[in-house]
Each structure stands twice: as C-alpha cells, then as structure tokens.
C-alpha cells in the first residue's frame, strides 16, 4: 500500500543515478533497468545528436571517431554535465514507461550524503528538465540501508558501507535518522584507475577503462590470495615501447598490490567512522556488524579485510548492486513510514 500525501504514485520511479550505472525501480516490479551511465553524442554542425545511451553507448567508449563522444555525465557521484544527465534521466523515464507520454512521474533520486546544496540542486533540476512532476532526494547510505533490509526506523544502531563507482560512504542509522555519515571520493572508478596505472607502470601496457573494469571484476582482490597466486587472466592492450598490440598474464596477487592504496582508504574511512559514534550505538554495531553494499562491496575479500581491521562481523548484502535503487523505491512507496528519508518530502 502506498502511504503518501501526494495521491496516486503508481507511476513513480526510483533512480540510482550512479557514476558507473543507472538503475530504476518500480513499485511491485522491482529493479526494471540497470545500464551504464553513458551517453554517446555526435557533434554535427554545431548541434549535439544522441546516438546511444546505456549499454549501447558504453560499447562505443574508446572506439568512436573524432565527432562522437561517449560521455559519463556523473563523476565522483555528482553531475559533471547537466544537459547529458538530463538526457540520461529522460532516457530512463521513457524506457521504464515503455515510451508512453503521460503526465510526468514522481521520481526519487539517490544522492551522495556529502553532496553540496549546489550539487543537490543540479540533480533536482536535471530530473525536472527530464519531465519529472516532483523530485524526491534521498541520501545514498539511507537508501542502501533500506534496500538491504536494515531496521533504520528502530531504536538500534545499524551501519552501512556503500561503495559505488565514484564515492564510498559510511553511515550509522537509528530511529529514522542518520547519526553519523562521512564519505570519500575513492571507490570503483579509483580502483579501475589504479589498475590502469599499475599495468602501465609495471608491464608497459596501455589499456582502456572497459578492460580495467573487466580485470577488477575477474581477478580483483582486496588482499593477497591465500596461495599467493589466485586466479589469473590474459590482458590485451598496447605496448608502450613498441606501439603494437600486446598481451600479459595478470593475477589476483598483482591486482591486490595495485589497489592496496584504495582498499586502505576504505578501511581507514570505516575505522574513523567507528571511532566517533556514541557508545550505545557502538554496542549495537558490535552485535549486528556492518553491511557492505554497492558494486564495490563485491570486491573479492573486502569483507575479510574490513572484518579483520574493525573486529566486527561484516556481511555483504545479497542485493548489493541494487540496494540503493530498491531502498529509494521502497521509501517512496511508503512515505508515511519513510518520509524522514527524503529531502523536502
């Protein structure tokens, strides 16, 4: 049942406007869209023509002629290109509604908790430009916690660590509020960049963003493998010295070394968060542990590293990739219970 003061919200959409991926959630249907946050644009005679959005546009990254640009409008969790972000949101609305031109929908959009008023205004205006009737903003850690099933409305402490493409955020939640939160702009993209830099430095191999992401997903690891080797894969790129295609074998151990600085930054963020929370909530978190969510939370072994460094139980959410979208959608679906989660609701 939709508990809300706005009437019929059956056409409402919740959007996780992520740096790497954009997800959409519909009440009663769950996550109905999950595509890369990429838009391909052709510059023709002073005008911009949209060629592709989402997965189709991502396939063009690094493979386009000079007059075509593949753009990611979100950088480090905030809008870097307002017009393209509006186009991306409009694409989501049209696709989710099967191209129907009805009155603009209510939209809930997740935002990093550390977003400035200017950044929040930019996201709101981009959604309104895309045709939204009313825009609700919800902080990503709160949305992630609701999506992961944490009891955020109860008088007990819950802690979530949400690792996306552009930001890593920690939050301690209790009684419908955020007791403490902080974030760093080190997450999935920074890990990809570290992998690219390592291969260039150690193997003299140039690779693209898509290859770096594939390496992370296939042999990425937060710590050295138990056998000091782990899984391995062949990587193809361009040899810096010779300028010709080349391939190397890369394994978990090397990637763990390559991304050690980024993993350490996440560990330090979690530890610094634990140091400042009230004692009563700290006791709750010792009992319940912390929940890892977001795509970056799926990095192999990260839960073990955080458990060792924090001395807490660490659980990886079963729906880590979808938690923010799910949580925003569930909150919008029951505003009578979750109205506290939204800005200006």
CATH architecture of the largest domain: 2-Layer Sandwich
The gross shape turns out to be: flat
CATH superfamily of the largest domain: ATPase, nucleotide binding domain
Number of folding domains? 4
How many strands, what sense, and barrel or not for the largest sheet? 6 strands, mixed
Name of the level-1 CATH class of the largest domain: Alpha Beta
Major sheet: arrangement of strands:
3-2-1-9-10-19
Strand content: 25-35%
Do you know the CATH topology of the largest domain? Answer: Nucleotidyltransferase, domain 5
Structural class: alpha+beta
Helix content estimate: 25-40%
Number of helices: 12
Q: What is the rounded Rg?
A: 21 Å
Mean pLDDT rating: 88
Compute the number of strand runs: 19
Task: Outline the low-pLDDT stretches.
Answer: none
The end-to-end span amounts to 18 Å
